[in-house]
Amino acid sequence: MTEVRFRRPTEGDYLAMVRVIDDWWGGRDMQWLLPRLWLQHFSSSSWLAESRDGGLAGFLVGFLSQDRADTAYCRLIATNPNMRRQGLARDLYEHFFADARAAGRSRVVAITWPGNRASIAFHRSLGFEVDAGPGTQNLYGTPAYPGYDFDSEDRTVLTKVL
């Protein structure tokens, strides 16, 4: 995308990001996914996209796993709904994939709610595969782990081999 600029987020970006996250996820309560600590400790492995006018266009918050030397993990990715279907999320991921490769990682893992068909389709279009291993069940039409988070939140696990 030529109309956006990519850079590392800083703690100073926190309020702008947290103010839009619920709206960008269709009004769902998602602020809890982005506590300030992510920008205090993981900004060097995350990306922010700004529009030409300096407005927030999107962001990806991720990290390189300390316990799994082959893995990078995308905590969340969000794009301004008015800028979707223009390749912005793909570009954010490509920046993250490049970071992961440079750090010697061979795979990227992400999770999503199994009912979020758009997210699953998007991740699959990037080459992510849905984990259908032991413990998964068909939830909302896709393999997922029931009670994956908080013993009540179902999640589909997606993995991309780099």
Largest sheet features:
9 strands, mixed
Question: What string, H for helix and E for strand, traces the elements in order?
Answer: EHHEEEHEHEEEE
Number of folding domains?
A: 2
> Mind telling me the CATH class of the largest domain?
Alpha Beta
Rough shape? Answer: globular
The residue ranges in which pLDDT falls below 50 over 5 or more consecutive positions are: none
The CATH topology assignment of the largest domain is: Aminopeptidase
The CATH architecture assignment of the largest domain turns out to be 3-Layer(aba) Sandwich
Calculate the mean pLDDT score and round it.
94
| H/I helix tally | 4
Describe the structure in your own words.
With 162 residues, the chain is an alpha+beta fold. It has two domains: 1-64 and 78-103, Gcn5-related N-acetyltransferase (GNAT) (Aminopeptidase, 3-Layer(aba) Sandwich), CATH 3.40.630.30; 106-162, no CATH class. It is 25% helix and 34% strand. Strands 1, 2, 3, 4, 5, 6, 7, 8 and 9 form a nine-stranded mixed sheet that branches. The chain is globular and about 45 Å long. The mean pLDDT is 94.
Would you kindly provide a brief summary of this structure?
The protein is built from four helices and nine strands; from the N terminus they run βααβββαβαββββ.
Give me the secondary-structure topology.
Layout: E1 4-7, H1 14-24, H2 37-41, E2 47-51, E3 56-64, E4 71-79, H3 88-102, E5 107-112, H4 117-125, E6 129-130, E7 137-139, E8 142-149, E9 153-161
Parallel strand pairs: 4-5
Antiparallel strand pairs: 1-2, 2-3, 3-4, 5-9, 6-9, 7-8, 8-9
